[in-house]
Amino acid sequence: MYRTHTCGALRISDVGQEVVLSGWAQTVRDKGYMLFIDLRDRYGVTQLLFNEDISSPELLEQARSVGREFVLQAKGKVAERASKNDKIPTGEVEIEVTELTILNASSVPPFTIDDDTDGGDDLRMKYRYLDLRRRPVQENIMFRSRLGIETRKHLADEGFLEIETPFLIKSTPEGARDFVVPSRMNPGQFYALPQSPQTFKQILMVSGFDKYFQIVKCFRDEDLRADRQPEFTQIDCEMAFVTQEDILNTFEGLTRHLFKALKGIDLPAFPRMTYDDAMRRFGSDKPDLRFGMEFTELNELAQHKGFKVFDSVELVVGINATGCAAYTRKQVDELTQWVQRPQIGAKGLVYVKYNEDGTFKSSVDKFFNTEDLKGWADKMGAQPGDLMLVLAGEADKTRKQLNELRLEMGRRLGLMKPGDFKPLWVVDFPLLEWDEETERFYAMHHPFTSPKKEDVARMLSGGHETMKSLRADAYDLVINGSEIGGGSIRIHDRKLQEKNFKLLGFTDEEAEAQFGFLMGAFEYGAPPHGGIAFGFDRLCAVMNGQSSIRDFIAFPKNNMGRDMMIDAPAPVHPEQLDELHLAQTKID
Amino acid sequence: MYRTHTCGALRISDVGQEVVLSGWAQTVRDKGYMLFIDLRDRYGVTQLLFNEDISSPELLEQARSVGREFVLQAKGKVAERASKNDKIPTGEVEIEVTELTILNASSVPPFTIDDDTDGGDDLRMKYRYLDLRRRPVQENIMFRSRLGIETRKHLADEGFLEIETPFLIKSTPEGARDFVVPSRMNPGQFYALPQSPQTFKQILMVSGFDKYFQIVKCFRDEDLRADRQPEFTQIDCEMAFVTQEDILNTFEGLTRHLFKALKGIDLPAFPRMTYDDAMRRFGSDKPDLRFGMEFTELNELAQHKGFKVFDSVELVVGINATGCAAYTRKQVDELTQWVQRPQIGAKGLVYVKYNEDGTFKSSVDKFFNTEDLKGWADKMGAQPGDLMLVLAGEADKTRKQLNELRLEMGRRLGLMKPGDFKPLWVVDFPLLEWDEETERFYAMHHPFTSPKKEDVARMLSGGHETMKSLRADAYDLVINGSEIGGGSIRIHDRKLQEKNFKLLGFTDEEAEAQFGFLMGAFEYGAPPHGGIAFGFDRLCAVMNGQSSIRDFIAFPKNNMGRDMMIDAPAPVHPEQLDELHLAQTKID
């Protein structure tokens, strides 16, 4: 037996006990006549004591040979520490070591294994096994494990079945790019790795399983922006005989349970907001509700007053930054430059300071008098001391720009408080998006999403413009400005599904070849059904107030999709390609 | 809301309640003045009643239009049934329907959706969504879900962390053939799908996670024998600071818990048997201990008595079939033919009937007298009324043949009782297997398996013959003749790992290119560790006394690795190959 206790277990009440501990040498402090080693494992740190009184010269000598990250087994007696450390639970005791075994030595690690490390990203990804020893990373991975367990417990208690769906499926043209897997037994044919178990979970509803979930890996071969991973994890769920209302309530319940069980937090109400409202009030389909700063549209008040920049545009819209009237000229200029950066793309920024003395100072004083600006202030709910920031231009673009500005002001004003969680359901998404460039419709959610009941007839009979106005029974769960889940009620009628594929540009043959099995299933008694999928990596990050999902993945890939530790992907033996009847073509 | 209750919920105590049920029409029985529909969901079946007294003519008409597998919503009052059905929990009640909604119609299913079906394998795989509606299949899938939940609960309670390992990893030449995934972002390079998370779970031990598990898909591109699947599921586990003893105890605990929680069964003791003993006593490394019929070696008694067939061979070995002395000549001939089939390959079968009257009748009476045969009987523990069956030949082959015969006799004599579960740890497997054909060693378990402590020195310094005699800290969990789990203590020392790779025919460069990251990790404080993996599909089948894992997989593939429902694999668009810089070569 390698240990009687972990390095996080011993307390003052254990003094006098003979124990055996195993772990890693975190630090070695040699004081000459005595020597301390902090022994670490995932449960904590315990101090080992060697000194001339209790240890033989050989033992002290051996302890002196120990370096950082050596793996040790120490036998000894628990004793009360002379100088206690109240920062750790084991800080009142130490082990008077009588026997030490060096289970494995360690070279000097390439970076320090501590809460803060001096290792750069690349080095830490290459030596991921060492980075994973650091406390903050260990805690993330342990959090993720607990989150998975709690999710499963809760959903199982609610009657959900976890059912595994296949990883070797079929490539479909819809959505993101698939990873493909050549089949040796079926030459010239390929599997694809699933982007989600979407069609399979719908099939399970047709099969009568009623309540399905799975915590499951999904794959997308996309160009990797920061914080995207080619493989990621979903909490994937589907229910039969439900309306949108049932689903929202069920997964509000799950979310509440997870926050309570993992963080001890009772979430506030989950308000609902239509997609249209969210765009109009926040310029985003995932507004961060930790702070207000809602949009105020100023067209009526601000247009036709002689300011040409406003007069010619579709939308004049602003936000009120509480208490920012004292911003200096320099600060306002800097904000203006900020919104003019190419990533944001605003042409300019109009500001109106509502001074503490009730006067106004703005960048448009030439065109608007005090009364005008008081009118803006009243509409925006601005008080003396506030700063109004106004953008103008094409409606959709301007809203997006103002959303960025709102978030930036929220950051600058410290309004995105860690530990504050504001959930929101965004509902009534459009069914289809028209893309001007390719002149076709795209599914806003995916091709299996149902239009709202009241829109079904219009969808089956309407013309092109009607299609643009169809609303879907689709919903997103947003927390603090992050989309952590999304789903929809699905089509369960073959005719409606055929119509949807046609709108999305599928020929009948293509629809049949790709999704014939699903439409076939709809002919044999498909129940009404719908579901949702949570981004599990994202949920981990959001619950911990962090922004990077990579920190919650044990073995993440870098922006080129590479695993730096194992050095994958890599060339394969030519015979492997021969067996698959494939050849490499020229790489430019 | 689509339903107030499931179809398995209502009881006599609910009589009088207004309820809404949704489900599938299992049967429609039209009696003219009244009509019954059995409404089914995964929770049960409830009878719907329509009759001229309570239902409007329109409602009766509508009910008559219902066909098998239609999806219905029925509103009505719970009533006591006139003729009760005590075979189902809802059998005392029925619903007097006042409102019926046909949620979806169904074409006539291609096979009957019932416990026994008339559908053939191919048809049921194509219409898997209908096959999955059948009660026995649903129960398998629900069992699997519960087994997963219980496994996770138990391991989490024992302090294990579930940590996800990547699916896009690197191809390695060792073991079975990998499925490969071309990387678009890294042209000319490939990921591989994991055959198991082996190296990653070892890395997690080096990282200090201590107790890891994962229920995880694994992939092997093998020619599919019956009951193999290209993707299958493992309960994958690893622990640090443990000996073989710790692991055996921990996973005996898991197995006991699962049998108790899922089947209400207290498993008997888990005996341990060395690989050598298992081969000598049962001719198999996974003996079925539900019955005895152990091997008795007869060389001493049976050789050099003038029977040349025996005299020239390495091994004469037999089993005693209790109570089979009355086998007719025809039965014995048939058994002889059975062992001579090419799959078994025995040259012949010697039988000795120990008649009830104490006399012997054998196929070797010419060479052995009564005293000789009495000696055999004594050694084999045979009693009057028994039948001794003896094979002779090269030791390994003969043991394997006698193993087959023992199992066949077990089947014929009904000794493999359903509901009887006999677990067994087989331990001390050889480390290496010498392959005469390729003239090289193969890892019996895998290249990361540690030799037993007492064999380490011999491994580092010994010659070729020594290597054949090395024993590993490797173990299998066998239940009723099925291997349901296997694992080992791993090497955690770089030098020993290098030596093992060399023995397995790796050059230093190959070992470094494939597993450099792992050997690198061993240099930075790798703890002693070991683990085990359970075949999850197999465990499901064994716990239910079934032989096919396919019945416990929601969407299995056929023997050609095809998903018949979605028709995968399939050709991909040529542009997809172009993007991957791949071209199809000629397929013969």
Automatic annotation (TrEMBL), chains A, B:
Q: State the EC number(s).
A: 6.1.1.12
Q: Write out the residues that bind ATP.
A: 220-222, 229, 483, 535-538
Q: Where in the cell is it found?
A: Cytoplasm
- Tell me which GO cellular component terms the UniProt record holds: cytoplasm
Query: Which Pfam families does the UniProt entry name for this protein?
Result: GAD, tRNA-synt_2, tRNA_anti-codon
Main location as per UniProt? cytoplasm
Chain positions recorded as L-aspartate binding sites: 174, 220, 445, 490
Q: Which residues form the Aminoacyl-transfer RNA synthetases class-II family profile domain?
A: 152-556
Provide the GO MF annotations for this entry: aspartate-tRNA ligase activity; ATP binding; nucleic acid binding
> Which controlled-vocabulary keywords does the entry list?
Aminoacyl-tRNA synthetase, ATP-binding, Cytoplasm, Ligase, Nucleotide-binding, Protein biosynthesis
Q: Which GO terms describe its biological process?
A: aspartyl-tRNA aminoacylation
Q: Where, if anywhere, are coiled coils annotated? A: none
Catalysed reaction(s)?
tRNA(Asp) + L-aspartate + ATP = L-aspartyl-tRNA(Asp) + AMP + diphosphate
Residue ranges of region Aspartate?
Answer: 198-201
PROSITE patterns reported in the protein's UniProt record: AA_TRNA_LIGASE_II
The superkingdom listed in its UniProt entry is Bacteria
Similarity section: Belongs to the class-II aminoacyl-tRNA synthetase family. Type 1 subfamily.
Q: Provide the assembly information.
A: Homodimer.
The UniProt function text for this chain reads:
Catalyzes the attachment of L-aspartate to tRNA(Asp) in a two-step reaction: L-aspartate is first activated by ATP to form Asp-AMP and then transferred to the acceptor end of tRNA(Asp).
HAMAP family assigned: Asp_tRNA_synth_type1
**UniProt xrefs under PANTHER family:** ASPARTATE--TRNA LIGASE, MITOCHONDRIAL (PTHR22594:SF5), ASPARTYL/LYSYL-TRNA SYNTHETASE (PTHR22594)
Q: What is this protein called?
A: Aspartate--tRNA ligase
Tell me what organism the protein belongs to: Phaeodactylibacter luteus
